[in-house]
Amino acid sequence: MSRLSRLRVKIFADGANLKEMAAWARCPEIRGFTTNPTLMRQAGVSDYEAFARDALRAIPDRPMSFEVFSDDFDDMERQARRIASWGENVYVKIPITNTEAQPSKPLVYRLSHSGVKVNVTAVLSLRQVLEAADALNGGAPSAISVFAGRIADTGRDPVPLMREALAIVKDVPSIEVIWASPREVLNVYQADDIGCHIVTATSGILAKLGLAGKDLDEFSLDTVRMFRTDAIGAGYELSGDEQPA
Fold it and tell me: Which CATH number among 2.60.120.10, 3.20.20.150, 2.30.30.90, 3.20.20.70 corresponds to the domain 2-211?
C-alpha cells in the first residue's frame, strides 16, 4: 500500500471485525477507524462497550468513531458522553436527525462545545452539511460524514456536492469532511482529487487498494487465469456429442 502514502486524503478503515481492524492498524496508511451499529451487528458484536474497549486497547493511537444508538436526544446525550469517556482518540457519531426527522443540531452543539469530539453522520444534503457545520463551529475537533456512496446510489454524481461541503467548512479548521460509504476504489482517488479530508473504506475496498497502478494487460491475464482456475475447480465439462437443436 506504499503508493497510498502519496495521497493527501486520510484513509479510515470502516468495519467491526477486531482481527481485521488490528491487521489494518499495522498499515501506517490507515489513519483512523470508523464503525456503526449495522457493521457491528453484521460482525456478530453482542456487547457494544466490550467491543469498543477491546478496539481501543488494540488501537489507542488513532481516531476511532463509535455511534450512539438511542433515538431520544436526552438518552443520546447520555450515551455520547459515556462513549467519549473511553478515550482521547474517540469521536462520537451523532446522526443528523433521529428517526422522526427531528434535527440533532442542538445536541451536536452542546456536545461539541463541551469538548466531545463529534462525528455528525448520515449526512446526504448540503442543507444538512450547513446545519452540522453551524453546530460544530467553535467546538472541539469534529467531522461531518457525508454518505457520498448513498448519494451515488440515487443516480447523482456525489463529487459536486462533496466539493460544496468542503467549501462550507474551509474556514473552520476544526471540522473535517469525511467521504463516507464509498462503493469502489475509484472513490478514494476522487476524494483525494477534490481535497477531501478523510475517506472511509471497508476491508473489501482496502484490499483492492494494492491494485493501484497495476498494468492493465497484466490484470487482464490475471482475470483470464481466474476464470480458467474456477472452471477447473468446478469440474465443468461439455459433452463431445452434438445435441439436436
Answer: 3.20.20.70
